[in-house]
Batch of 4 targets.
Target 1
Amino acid sequence: MVVSPVVNTYPLSSYSFGTKEPKMEKDTSVADRLARMKLNYMKEGMRTSVEAILLVQEHNHPHILLLQIGNTFCKLPGGRLKPGENEVEGLKRKLSSKLAANSPNMQPNWQIGECVAVWWRPNFETIMYPYCPPHISKPKECKKLYVVHLSEREYFAVPKNLKLLAVPLFELYDNVQRYGPVISTIPQQLSRFQFNMISG
Amino acid sequence: MVVSPVVNTYPLSSYSFGTKEPKMEKDTSVADRLARMKLNYMKEGMRTSVEAILLVQEHNHPHILLLQIGNTFCKLPGGRLKPGENEVEGLKRKLSSKLAANSPNMQPNWQIGECVAVWWRPNFETIMYPYCPPHISKPKECKKLYVVHLSEREYFAVPKNLKLLAVPLFELYDNVQRYGPVISTIPQQLSRFQFNMISG
């Protein structure tokens, strides 16, 4: 038999949450964001970004932690790697910047697990694909999604301008309108995992 | 660094194709299919089915082999396991039944690889989900998709009532209307793989 990889998921209530100083978005519009991306590309080449799928459970169903900006836009915690930075180390750095208290001895135990999806941006545009399209020899961004295994108890410090939401898989599934193509297909990418739901 | 699993893909032209006797569908309508499913469930419990993602390349882009029935409906090769049957052995049996010549010494070398997706059918209905929905304690079917690694050269015998198509990932992506929810998200599920495109 083929063995499914296991993810232990703990109740949302076993985690505690506080706030910290705001982490403002670097860009105020999509056009600004794409212009900055182009500038960085000319200096550093293809952008590599890493994002985390952090899982908790409620009512025995897996939920994903998403950061909400304003009232509608949701994103996975993560961000852009520095040129040459190791993916796993870079993701830990980004997770601490987005979700950890400032004190170095209060960092969650980020256990970076499986890479579950890779998305490519062929042009300086918002559209991404889960493959590098044919005839694209110089993609502009490669974004990798990792499952991050959480310990049973952790303290998260959420920037004051963001909200941290636990969103059930059934809410993400088939909901590209609300969550976009990357986040709305996370349920499919996690389907091969076996969730070991640990109650509180 | 996290290492991506590798799939060697060979050109479509390195495979040869013939035909064999028709393999008719067991049911002539969706209603018949669901009725037979219900009957089998009462006898044998939850149905487990296994399907194969067979990859080839053309123009350096991965393509998936799909069986087309009539002019529109496409499916992955595979099928229902016998009660208690091993998944890997069952998938090999189904692949040979659908795609191999009848002679036992002409069987392709089916190398069953990674399970990339698991879909659940909560009720005797057509809709499936990439998770077992909350409050469903007795799902009716569990369908697992496996990557099957093909050798460089093989001979496939296609039942006369079916057509074997090599469909590029870019055609499947975001095309739920044509391919349905399971097949249209295969590009996302394969995105974490590194394709080693071997030319002819």
Target 2
Amino acid sequence: GTPTIPVLEIFGPTVQGEGMVIGQKTMFVRTAGCDYRCLWCDSAFTWDGSAKDLIIKMTPTEIRDELRRIGDNRFSHVTLSGGNPALLPQLEGLVSLLRGEGITIAVETQGSRWQDWLAEIHQVTLSPKPPSSGMATDWPVLDDIVAKLSARPAPFAVSLKVVVFDEADLSYTRQVHARYPGVAMFLQVGNPDVRRMDIGHHAADLLHRYEGLIDRVMSLSDLNDVRVLPQLHALVWGNRRGV
Amino acid sequence: GTPTIPVLEIFGPTVQGEGMVIGQKTMFVRTAGCDYRCLWCDSAFTWDGSAKDLIIKMTPTEIRDELRRIGDNRFSHVTLSGGNPALLPQLEGLVSLLRGEGITIAVETQGSRWQDWLAEIHQVTLSPKPPSSGMATDWPVLDDIVAKLSARPAPFAVSLKVVVFDEADLSYTRQVHARYPGVAMFLQVGNPDVRRMDIGHHAADLLHRYEGLIDRVMSLSDLNDVRVLPQLHALVWGNRRGV
Ligand code: SF4
Ligand code: SF4
């Protein structure tokens, strides 16, 4: 039969809250499973077993039908998120089905695994993880993925995005930017509390941290051609899921 | 002698708070003068006479020197803002001087006037004004400007950005997007109080309005391929000037 995809959430349309297409109207498909265990993961339920019973194995057609059931004709963009969607070779079927319907597709992955279908994704965000995550970057693998994705013609685009919590993360970010100077570079302020539900104070704290990150980046001449962004969904909805 | 440019502010580096390169590290050069009188203009001091004595007539070289004095080597991107910078044919000298130094340039203009130097700008944001502004759009002029800027090859880019306060503005936005379907479209939530200095409440109010605009756009199938954004500088710094 058709290979199935482990899905945890399908929701939208909403706005993409971060990165290279921040603000874009999009649907989200969140897959289960990750090869990393970031200390501050805001989607730990995709890999820590806590939502194991909510995982549904779906065929590409079933996912497309569910997108249409909840999004109807009110979307033309889909974001594949995780976990790490690049663990799943069987996403190829979904990517080609959606592309055949004229849908633009974005993916976020840490850049630890290649899949051939990544070449067909319009907007790939590679988000290598800084020291505060507790993870180590496999540079040769990332080099290869960046090279493959950068070689594609427009409108196919790739960007790097690093979450920054502290000075060690900022050093890591500078290292990433120096290694891939031609790739669009996004710095994202870290969310220090992925459980806090007091939206007002959460937003104020995140904006304060965002201002601090701006100050640091503005002082560094090796980070001139970069973009510094908060997570808009965290500002608007706090840590609520499915918005 | 060299034609001079009426300048009101030169500041940075800071982040671009809105539109197609939101988050980009950039310097700002704000020129004086506007052919519009938007009711909610957040830069009315550029045209209402209140800052008349602060206008300095500067040559391109003087502007470049001032950018280097305050930004040193900590920038590679400059944003020309107003007022309406497209009133000034003499910006051509500045544009070519900055481009010669490898600087990427962005401009925001309402699209009411053409200047040949606009063709040399890497990121042009055209921001036609909706009904709440009290201004009327000259569609044939805008058609011509959109056509000229859209015809340029990458990395030259153009986008449309409309500020939305109410339902009439949203209707206008839909009209703009339908007229120029191939041009990247940004909706920006309006800032209802350009004088309020209580940043905490200002940010909370803006985020609430942003959520409301998201809800409306998500419901409309003719606004699928759009991006909806707040003004990040208004969230972080409120209505403070020069940041
Ligand atoms: S790579 Fe992403 S999903 Fe995986 S653990 Fe890290 S933050 Fe979580
Ligand atoms: S076009 Fe821009 S600068 Fe001119 S009045 Fe309107 S908002 Fe103000």
Target 3
Amino acid sequence: MDYEKIYARKAPDGAERRDLKRISDSLGEKIRSLLSKMRVTAEVQLVGSTSKGTNLKGGDIDLFIVFPTSYSRSDIVKVGLKIGHMILPDGQEKYAEHPYVFGYVEGHKIDIVPCFSMKENDNLKSAVDRSPLHTRWVNANLDDLKRKEIILLKAFMKGIGVYGSEVSKGGFSGYVCELLVIRLGSFQKVLEFFAGSEKRLRLTQDHPSPIDDAPMVVTDPVDRKRNAAAAVSMENLARMRILSREFLNKPSEEFFDGFPRKSPPNIPRKTCFRIFSLERPDLLEDVIYPQIEKLRKIIVSESRNEGFHPIDSEIVFGRRINILVELENDVRPAIKIHAGPPAHSQETRKFLDKWDKSPHVRGPFIVDERPVVEVKQVSRFNDVIISALRDKDIGANLNSVKGSIRIYSVPATKEQRDLMQKYMTRNLTG
Amino acid sequence: MDYEKIYARKAPDGAERRDLKRISDSLGEKIRSLLSKMRVTAEVQLVGSTSKGTNLKGGDIDLFIVFPTSYSRSDIVKVGLKIGHMILPDGQEKYAEHPYVFGYVEGHKIDIVPCFSMKENDNLKSAVDRSPLHTRWVNANLDDLKRKEIILLKAFMKGIGVYGSEVSKGGFSGYVCELLVIRLGSFQKVLEFFAGSEKRLRLTQDHPSPIDDAPMVVTDPVDRKRNAAAAVSMENLARMRILSREFLNKPSEEFFDGFPRKSPPNIPRKTCFRIFSLERPDLLEDVIYPQIEKLRKIIVSESRNEGFHPIDSEIVFGRRINILVELENDVRPAIKIHAGPPAHSQETRKFLDKWDKSPHVRGPFIVDERPVVEVKQVSRFNDVIISALRDKDIGANLNSVKGSIRIYSVPATKEQRDLMQKYMTRNLTG
């Protein structure tokens, strides 16, 4: 395994580094002079991976305007947006913890984000305030050898699909990669850590984490109550563990570049597919994704509760939200057994009275220690699931587009065909 | 509710009583004289309901030959069979705890059974030895008023399908009916006992039963370690409780005569039926029934384990054994998810190695914290169940006729149509 070659492919080259430095220095200067003109006493700080020299090729420039806590949040947002738009005339506003401006300079993505000045282990006003602390801590604990290891680790995680702490990914953030290499020493050591047999992976420096039920816990050195790896999902942790083990056994460049997606043999599956398609509200992915995930879970659990035996499911969201579910059947029995109270209960009388007067199919008869009756039920999946979803809360923003849900049995659009393809070619990377 | 009328319909009339008395006296005399000719010092005792005056119309005559314990079991069986055949020239042998002869005299069924003489709470040599003790105890504790109540209780239990302690019935024996009336006072009181809200029904006279996990416990007064109601199944106890409650609320003769069986409305059930038909070995019902029941349970559990979602099942045994099972589907998906070891285990390497080289459909991919792979599976019910049954032990006597199992999707014989009818018209009495 020629790590130098991988590094050369994945790390920015000298020209890109120089460009990023030149652009961020110049933007920083401009912001500083604007602040001084506006008589605002704030500092400009380059944060994120570029500021730490741990960026992969094509990284962003994150410029933070760090305000003293004497300012109000609305003030720093106002100043932040104003300066953002002056610096990036084509910039757009985006909303994380609060609004900020992003745009492009010479093809590089630039974020201009206002935040408050904080000290380590302070009670933070918001999560963005942590970034300058992270930058400072990481730079104080890094050397160029480790920077290289971090870039290898990030490239590996990106290759196997576990890199990125956005909600829809549930993976490892760049900062967690940095902490892992700083704590464990090298790319190789990090992989050995994940490939081990410990049931629970914890890097807590003997500070027991208050959020110990997370799949993985890495204490944030600038805020020791915080789990820096809180975003990592059980699946992505499993993926990282299993594929670290595979890589250590048989290293290959594939791990850095993504595995090929193979189509399965074309056999009749004797199952039923449904694709739920609905409008995508115009909101940040991190806001809308948890609601899509909630809807997927509701579709699967209702399919299960209602007896359609779901096998597996998959989400894609492009222009619309599409959720696929594969079922054992799309027709269930037209009858079901409805159980009454146990034999010792006086309520058996009411149960038998009710069913003496109400239409039913078989019974009442006795099963185990209860009277039961067989009743009719709706048998087609679409009828059942539509009425089940009607009563469900699928999240503030999706509730409003519930009416747009269409159910397809075969993919009808490019996005739906892609979803089907994603489902059928699923591999270890996702 | 005119109990006198019910009693008159269900109890033997004067002529029948006189006939039974005459026949049993005369048979008893004959046996005694044969014993004396054979120089065997054994006593003849009329046992069972006829001996206690608690018999329903058309009851049997049970004549026991009670031997001192100085005799060996083989001796008493030899003498018992010899005398049996002399008394009942057309008699046949039957096997309970040991062989005995039964036959008919003037249309009344006669059992001639050898047993050992025992005292109360002795360690019994076999269960038949208890009958003379039961007869003695019951007669010492009964008056004619209670005899009437017992006959009503037996007729009620017979009407609702819970009378009879044979294995295939799992109901209440005549002796338990007698104990219940003796302990509780009357037919009405017994029904009130069952209709109550106690979770567990126990009549133990403060003798905690060693077999307390039975659905119902009634201490046998002649053998206080024994649960006289051990044969009662959970279903039949539930049936008795629920229908006692119904009867007390609205008494009707129906309870003594059996409920009508109503055919359900003819709707498409969207389910699949299978009837397993096999040869009936020429053995006592009490021997073969537990094996049939075991086979039914295996068919249901294998159907469930293999993903065919059984709904309900039913047995009839006439000339052949027929077991019906209703399934949600008779075709399951042609694929299934096969899960590997958890992510922390070093065994994930073997799992991925194996499936890298073995044919599969989708994957491997990650679900929760495991690598999984999707593999093909046989999808037709008959193929799956036949191979599942091949490896199963379905009991010594049924194993030998396993080869005769035929599986039908629609009833093909009168017995199978009756089975279907029994299943579709199931009511509270069974």
Target 4
Amino acid sequence: MSNHVYKSLELTGSSKTSIEDAVQTAIAKAHETVRNIQWFTVTETRGHVVDGKVAHWQVTVKIGFTLE
Amino acid sequence: MSNHVYKSLELTGSSKTSIEDAVQTAIAKAHETVRNIQWFTVTETRGHVVDGKVAHWQVTVKIGFTLE
Amino acid sequence: MSNHVYKSLELTGSSKTSIEDAVQTAIAKAHETVRNIQWFTVTETRGHVVDGKVAHWQVTVKIGFTLE
Amino acid sequence: MSNHVYKSLELTGSSKTSIEDAVQTAIAKAHETVRNIQWFTVTETRGHVVDGKVAHWQVTVKIGFTLE
Amino acid sequence: MSNHVYKSLELTGSSKTSIEDAVQTAIAKAHETVRNIQWFTVTETRGHVVDGKVAHWQVTVKIGFTLE
Amino acid sequence: MSNHVYKSLELTGSSKTSIEDAVQTAIAKAHETVRNIQWFTVTETRGHVVDGKVAHWQVTVKIGFTLE
Amino acid sequence: MSNHVYKSLELTGSSKTSIEDAVQTAIAKAHETVRNIQWFTVTETRGHVVDGKVAHWQVTVKIGFTLE
Amino acid sequence: MSNHVYKSLELTGSSKTSIEDAVQTAIAKAHETVRNIQWFTVTETRGHVVDGKVAHWQVTVKIGFTLE
Amino acid sequence: MSNHVYKSLELTGSSKTSIEDAVQTAIAKAHETVRNIQWFTVTETRGHVVDGKVAHWQVTVKIGFTLE
Amino acid sequence: MSNHVYKSLELTGSSKTSIEDAVQTAIAKAHETVRNIQWFTVTETRGHVVDGKVAHWQVTVKIGFTLE
Amino acid sequence: MSNHVYKSLELTGSSKTSIEDAVQTAIAKAHETVRNIQWFTVTETRGHVVDGKVAHWQVTVKIGFTLE
Amino acid sequence: MSNHVYKSLELTGSSKTSIEDAVQTAIAKAHETVRNIQWFTVTETRGHVVDGKVAHWQVTVKIGFTLE
């Protein structure tokens, strides 16, 4: 109960629309296989450009979850 | 007039909707007690996750204002 | 064909509405004079405050493009 | 209830005995004037040396608390 | 035999008593599923505060082990 | 007597003449309201340019003082 | 199809001959169990010394691959 | 009018006399070909030594200007 | 004669064979249009992977040259 | 009397028991050959693991002393 | 002639008057025992404060010299 | 036997041919006067350019050795 241990994974989510959506994409993917996700931290925000416009936002997050 | 001095505070705003809204929340709170806020810099973007979705965006900003 | 060289520029775009729009503003400006923009990385997010509200988002990006 | 704002202060606590005690000294001092302290992060660990022995541990912490 | 490959995981251990105990908690948890742990590096030291006292030390470590 | 606690503030001083003068401006301002200032660390040196000349040096310092 | 998610692992490869070979050793090991490796970034270059000569190059890389 | 874009260049100025003079040398050089320089940030301060004395101060600055 | 000014560019060279060759590729490209290149600093080493092997080394360098 | 010069050395002390003891081990070793040690700063905390337990704490410190 | 090796020392010089004078103090001290000093880099600028005024500038430099 | 202390030196080796050779040059030089060198870490990779080609690779390493 008391001495929890957390593990963190680093994922990069992409989105055509926004930074927030790219983060949500990464977390949703992690949620498919990992239970108990608690928090994330953004570590890099970048993207691809096509014809002078942002085609994809690519946001890297550290995702932390409780180990059971 | 000439030799201004600026002070900076570090606050973390939270929001259920977006990074921009979390920043605005922090600045609005500082505005209650501090006059002459001039600028901010984002120093960390993180958040809480519930059931595989972002529940709160938590954005830390340094907020700079003129000392009178 | 094989040994490409990329150059990166550092620009700061501003926007009254969002971080994403400030990035797009910077890339659109670079696109006026540079061909083959491929990617960007956000290196700083800051802004101006007027009357306790964010007046402008100012986002600095490194923009990478292929040298021909 | 929903959109909390946190403020962080930077203090340096000192102790003749341990790193943990220096942190606790800083937090106890902050607790005299600040309510609702939630967390801390260690940002620097240093100390003074006298006659080849550690005389004081000096640990700098960021201390975060809820603004009401 | 010669060209080893090491993998590193990032875990956060918690403890009510000390930084060293929080590190040991994280390593013991990793040891349940990973063989051949060789080293660790502390990457962040933080904690929770309740009533002006450190309630939990939370120490993040990179843990390195040999891949077989 | 033994277990001192220090607090640090972040100020930015400006000056038309030199980096040293900008630092002194910031410390003098802090001295108006804070007793027992002990040390400072320069964390950023920047400035404004008008007509191709430095109009103001803007130097950010962390200023440390003893809490009584 | 559009919103890819990438995961990154951190491995350290070693080699008696060169930095490039140490990187290739790490990637080859990851390739045994992970499909779709796309890129790597070198995060640390170090090594062991025996009798005043480099005995092993040890290069740490973040390796990124597409999650399916 | 509203959505400005700024570009930054990195120059290193040198001077036999002072850090401030080296910065001014770099800005004056940029001013020969670039209009609308607004600000600079010092990113590195170094120098050459001859016979145990500083022969040249070499200060690297990022120089920001408005793109028209 | 005395107060030189240096400018730095950031390029990324690629190579199928080695880190050194990728650096040389970037410098040779810069040399086509810039005279008086004096030095470079490696700021990032990364690469593309195909079928578990390094397909391209991509090395980013800051290249410094004298402004005349 | 007035214009002191300090030199700093980087040492790594090890200990089977605690971070504090590893720091003290490094300082005691420096004290054998260096007079006037004044301060230290912790720059890295790591350790060796044997059988899922911390076998040695290895703490790197910068040690500063007055040059006479 | 061809394959030089340079060593760097870290010293902190102090001065009552300026940053430049503190750097020169450190280099002059190193020059008493080290030949062939070539360059320095400023790594930290701080100082002591007495009665709301800078009493000493303390500037840390890495000093590089050729090993013979 | 148990509580080792390690010291680290910072050297820069140069080479006309490769990064690896520059590292080896620095270590061989240290080996002339220091026993028990155990490890190194690369902290900077740079070089001189002549006529658009790399004339010298200059690689800075921290070199660690056991104090007896």
